[in-house]
């Protein structure tokens, strides 16, 4: 186990580069299975989730090789329709293999993904999409078994209780591109990661219209070819660096930050006194106004709304903003795991249903804290950057699922943060957390 030690109080300044998007790369790895030819993916982040996906594809018979720091080569000429449970259980996103296996092989066996600390995320909409295209689906001993020998295009509605499902939309698209006939996906997720998936599939020869909208139309083709594709930058990582600059009162340039992917986030930041401007198509500048941070209000919604993956980090920022801030979670209502840890650092936060109410402006103080998930890890690190004294963040293996070289990039901006063995943590801190 490793921990982060953070000495807060330093303004972040300089330039930082956001890596490729994890949430785009994982479905793209899966999409490579739709062809028997080799595909090459560029700008892939170096993350534990990516390595898990590569292991899964290897176990399924694909040839997978990392040919450069951010480049992977995938040859899926010979694959089986079964994904291994021991690897699938480690990464929920592996459910995106369902669509490609159904589309190319006409059958699939995918172990049910496990639960998640941020709340239940069922796959009923994924299964319903396969059934709408004529697949027979059974759940046996925790394994989703699909027989799709008679797969065909159809109309599919992808809306759910908390909005459109992103991975469900990806699965429906990937199954439909090889299904005979026309498929219409209504209430499709329109996240940039879905647009990136469609761009790769088009490069492979898929016939897709309505990309970037809630209505996608697909005319199935007989086969797809391999391709070379560059993964889009990670909008959540880029926004996290913007928040790091804001919470420390610094000034940072984020390469890989795309204003067209961050509209709702930028709107909230501008309202609370953080100026975010486009320097180019793939670069933004971040600077806090001289009068400091003001209170904010945000409601998480599916894209193009405010991202649920930035709610925890924005909560940390609100602890430094003068006045009363309100963050309402409409995507995963249970996603307030970092709040008790922020309270340990002196934050004033109360939870009312699906909302956190933050009275900001009081100093944060360093403390030993425990990360519960990926975005909570980032939130606690941001709080540590702004706190007085030392903050020790445990369970940072969550962080390595979604942030490539996070501490090194922060160090490049002047942050005092280092990764250490857990044994380096003061024994008194361990007693506090036991």
Detailed description of the structure:
This protein is globular. Strand 10 and strand 11 form a beta hairpin. The strands form 7 sheets. It has a 4-stranded mixed beta sheet with strand order 23-24-1-25, with helices on both faces. The chain has 14 helices and 25 strands. The model has no long low-confidence stretch (mean pLDDT 94). Helices cover 30% and strands 27% of the residues.
Brief account:
The protein is an alpha+beta fold and 434 residues long. The protein has helices spanning 22-31, 48-59, 85-88, 98-105, 124-132, 166-176, 192-203, 235-248, 263-271, 311-318, 339-344, 374-386, 406-412, 427-433; strands at residues 2-7, 13-17, 39-42, 63-68, 71-75, 107-111, 136-140, 143-147, 155-157, 159-160, 163-164, 182-186, 207-209, 215-219, 228-230, 251-255, 274-280, 283-288, 297-300, 323-329, 348-352, 355-360, 368-370, 390-394, 416-421.
Q: Give me the count of strands.
A: 25
Label the overall shape: globular
Give the fraction of residues assigned to helices: 25-40%
Category from helices, strands and their pairing: alpha+beta
The termini sit apart by: 16 Å
Helix count?
14
Low-pLDDT segments = none
Main sheet record: 4 strands, mixed
Strand fraction equals 25-35%
């Amino acid at each position: 186990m490793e921990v982060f030690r953070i000495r807060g109080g330093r303004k972040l300044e300089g330039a930082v580069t956001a890596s490729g998007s994890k949430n785009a790369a994982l479905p793209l790895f899966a999409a490579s299975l739709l062809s028997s030819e080799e595909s090459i993916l560029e700008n892939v982040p170096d993350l534990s989730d990516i390595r898990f996906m590569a292991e899964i594809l290897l176990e399924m018979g694909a040839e997978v090789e990392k040919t450069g720091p951010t480049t992977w080569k995938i040859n899926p000429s010979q694959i089986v329709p079964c994904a291994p449970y021991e690897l699938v259980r480690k990464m929920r996103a592996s459910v995106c293999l369902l669509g490609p296996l159904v589309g190319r092989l006409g059958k699939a066996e995918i172990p049910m993904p496990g639960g998640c600390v941020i709340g239940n995320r069922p796959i009923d909409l994924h299964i319903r999409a396969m059934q709408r295209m004529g697949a027979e689906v059974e759940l046996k001993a925790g394994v989703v078994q699909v027989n799709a020998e008679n797969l065909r295009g159809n109309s599919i509605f992808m809306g759910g209780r908390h909005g459109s499902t992103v991975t469900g939309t990806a699965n429906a698209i990937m199954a439909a591109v090889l299904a005979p006939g026309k498929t219409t996906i209504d209430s499709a997720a329109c996240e940039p990661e879905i647009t990136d998936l469609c761009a790769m599939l088009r490069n492979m020869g898929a016939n897709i219209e309505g990309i970037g909208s809630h209505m996608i139309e697909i005319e199935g083709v007989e086969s797809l070819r391999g391709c070379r594709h560059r993964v889009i930058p990670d909008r959540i990582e880029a926004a996290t660096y913007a928040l790091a600059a804001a919470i420390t009162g610094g000034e940072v340039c984020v390469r890989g930050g795309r204003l067209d992917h961050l509209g709702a986030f930028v709107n909230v930041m501008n309202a609370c006194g953080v100026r975010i401007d486009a320097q180019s198509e793939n670069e933004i500048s971040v600077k806090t106004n001289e009068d400091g941070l003001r209170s904010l209000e945000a409601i998480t919604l599916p894209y193009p709304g405010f991202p649920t993956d930035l709610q925890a980090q924005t909560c940390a920022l609100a602890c430094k903003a003068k006045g009363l801030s309100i963050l309402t979670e409409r995507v995963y209502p249970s996603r307030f795991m970092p709040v008790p840890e922020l309270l340990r650092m002196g934050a004033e936060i109360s939870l009312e249903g699906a909302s956190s109410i933050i009275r900001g402006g009081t100093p944060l103080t360093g403390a030993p804290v425990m990360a519960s998930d990926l975005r909570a890890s980032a939130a606690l690190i941001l709080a540590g950057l702004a706190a007085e004294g030392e903050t020790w963040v445990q369970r940072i293996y969550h962080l390595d699922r979604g942030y490539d070289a996070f501490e090194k990039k922060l160090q490049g901006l002047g942050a005092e943060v280092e990764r250490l063995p857990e044994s380096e943590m003061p024994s008194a801190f361990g007693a506090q957390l036991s």
